[in-house]
TrEMBL record:
Keyword Hydrolase: no
Annotated segments matching region Disordered: 1-24
Keyword annotations: Membrane, Transmembrane, Transmembrane helix
Species name: Asarcornis scutulata
Membrane topology: Multi-pass membrane protein
Name listed for the protein in its UniProt record: Golgi apparatus membrane protein TVP23 homolog
C-alpha cells in the first residue's frame, strides 16, 4: 500500500546546479551587474563648453550693444533723442534679462525685492543648491562674471570722459548705465556670498552631527 501511494515528484535539478547548494548560488550566473555611469555622465557635462548658448549670447548682447551704440551712435544718426532712447532700451533689456534669466541659468543665482503684507520691503538673495550634473559649466560662469564686472567699469570710464569733455547731455544716460549694471553686480555678489554662507552652515552642521555619537 505504501508503495502504491503516489509520491510527490521531486523537481529535476537545473543544469549546472547541485542539490544542497545555497539558494543564492542559483542566481550567480544571471545576477545583474550595475554599472556606475554617473561619474562619466557628470564629467561629460562638466566638459561641455556652453550648455545654455542662447542665455550666454543674450547675457552679453544687450550690454555690449549698448556700449557700441554709445560709442558710434553719431555715425548712424544725428538725433540725440533717438540715440538716447535706443541705448536706454538696450540697458533696460540687459537689466531684465540678466536679473531674471541669465543669472538663474548660468550660475544658479537670483535676487529680487519682496514686499510683505505689512508693507515692509526687503531684498532676497538666493543661491541654488544643485548637483554637479545640473550646475553650469566653468565657461558659462566665467563669461557671466566677466560680463557682469567689466561692463560697469566701462560705463564708469564713460562717466569721467563725459564729465571732463563737458558733454553733459550724455551724463544722465551714462549714470543710468552705471546704476542699472551696478545693481545687477551688487545683487549677484550678495547671492554668491549668501550661497557660501549657507554651504558653511551646512558643513558645520554636518560635523556637529558627526560628533554627537562620540
Amino acid at each position: 500500500k505504501q508503495a502504491g501511494k503516489a509520491q510527490p515528484g521531486r523537481p529535476s535539478p537545473l543544469p549546472g546546479a547541485l542539490w544542497g547548494s545555497p539558494p543564492q548560488a542559483l542566481g550567480d550566473d544571471t545576477e545583474d551587474v550595475s554599472l556606475d555611469l554617473g561619474g562619466e555622465e557628470e564629467l561629460a557635462l562638466r566638459k561641455a563648453q556652453i550648455r545654455h548658448p542662447l542665455a550666454t549670447f543674450f547675457h552679453l548682447f544687450f550690454r555690449v550693444s549698448a556700449i557700441i551704440t554709445y560709442l558710434f551712435c553719431d555715425w548712424f544718426s544725428n538725433s540725440f533723442v533717438a540715440c538716447f532712447v535706443t541705448i536706454l532700451l538696450l540697458l533696460s533689456f540687459d537689466f531684465w534679462s540678466v536679473k531674471n534669466v541669465t543669472g538663474r541659468l548660468l550660475v544658479g543665482l537670483r535676487w529680487w525685492n519682496q514686499i510683505d503684507e505689512d508693507g515692509t520691503s526687503h531684498w532676497v538673495f538666493e543661491a541654488r543648491r544643485v548637483s554637479m550634473t545640473a550646475a553650469s559649466t566653468e565657461a558659462e560662469a566665467r563669461i557671466f562674471w566677466l560680463g557682469l564686472i567689466i561692463c560697469p567699469v566701462i560705463w564708469t570710464v564713460f562717466f569721467f570722459s563725459t564729465l571732463f569733455s563737458l558733454k553733459l547731455k550724455w551724463l544722465a544716460l551714462v549714470i543710468a548705465g552705471i546704476s542699472l549694471q551696478t545693481a545687477n553686480l551688487y545683487g549677484y555678489i550678495h547671492c554668491k556670498l549668501e550661497g557660501q554662507k549657507s554651504i558653511g552652515r551646512i558643513t558645520s552642521r554636518f560635523f556637529v552631527t558627526a560628533d554627537i555619537p562620540k
